[in-house]
Write a structure and sequence with these properties.
mainly beta; two-stranded antiparallel sheet; 6 strands
């Protein structure tokens, strides 16, 4: 159950060219973002904070919070998983590096 919490929901992120609104890149992130403040662009990297897990059909699946970092082409650069076990993200703030 806990090992599958990242399989329950995912969020697709799409990067558009603002000049012609064409899709430049896209990626899929496990979990859900709280709001627009769960995303941050810094030094050509996109940082995304998500909550994974939650209630499932057959019982409670423990929640966790992850941070994913992507380059300007939305290729994965790194991640930190399983922060704040049993908790959800209610706000996020990215400061510097």
């Amino acid at each position: 159950a806990q090992e599958h919490r990242r399989d329950l929901t995912s969020t697709q992120i799409v990067k558009l060219d603002v000049n012609n609104l064409m899709q430049v890149a896209s990626t899929l992130v496990p979990g859900t973002l709280l709001n627009q403040f769960s995303l941050d662009e810094h030094n050509d990297n996109l940082r995304v904070a998500v909550t994974v897990g939650g209630w499932a059909q057959f019982g409670n699946i423990e929640t966790a919070n992850d941070l994913y970092i992507f380059d300007k082409n939305l290729r994965p650069r790194g991640n930190i998983k399983d922060m704040g076990l049993t908790e959800r993200i209610y706000s996020a703030r990215f400061i510097g590096d």
